[in-house]
Amino acid sequence: MEIGGDTKAVVLAAGLIFLWALLLGVWKYREMAAAEDGLAHPYVDVAHRAALLYSFATLLLAAFVELSGFSAAVNLIAAFVPIFFFAAAIAGYMIHGARKDTDNQLRDPVRGTTAFMYALIAGEVGGTFVLLLGFANGQL
């Protein structure tokens, strides 16, 4: 079975995010092993878990892309907007985990956090909505 180039790109992104999650698991393990209480910093834990979940969410996006009735260009844009925000969120969690500066990034947010959160919501929901429309267009 041959899949479209747009689908291949999204599946590759899912695999890369999954590999990222596995490497974050190593970081989490090392922190757990070194800590008196056996716990990694909360944001190291969040980064690891988020990357695992986002990798599978990206695979779901790949299924929508493959079954979409929209063009490859529309599918790629619609898929990579949420994927960008998935990666940005993971990176942000990693920064907080490395700095050990907070256990809640929204308690005392840095400048731009609220705008980023609104963009993340619009990008993730909007991109997924477009892909669902494409699926409905192509399959229903």
Structure description:
The chain has 140 residues and is mainly alpha-helical. The chain has a single domain, classed as Four Helix Bundle (Hemerythrin (Met), subunit A) (Up-down Bundle). It is 79% helix and 0% strand. It contains four helices and no strands. Helix 3 runs antiparallel to helix 4. The radius of gyration is 17 Å and the shape is flat. It starts with a helix and ends with a helix.
Q: Report the CATH C-level class.
A: Mainly Alpha
Average predicted local confidence, pLDDT: 97
Radius of gyration: 17 Å
Number of domains: 1
> What's the order of the H and E elements?
HHHH
**Looking at the structure, what is the overall shape?**
flat
Low-confidence stretches at least 5 residues in length (pLDDT < 50)?
none
Main traits of this protein?
flat; 0% strand; Four Helix Bundle (Hemerythrin (Met), subunit A); 140 residues
List the helices and strands and how they pair.
Elements: H1 5-34, H2 42-67, H3 72-99, H4 113-139
Helix pairs in contact: 1-2, 1-3, 2-3, 2-4, 3-4
Please summarize what this structure is.
With 140 residues, the chain is an all-alpha fold. The protein contains 4 helices and no strands. The protein is flat and about 55 Å long.
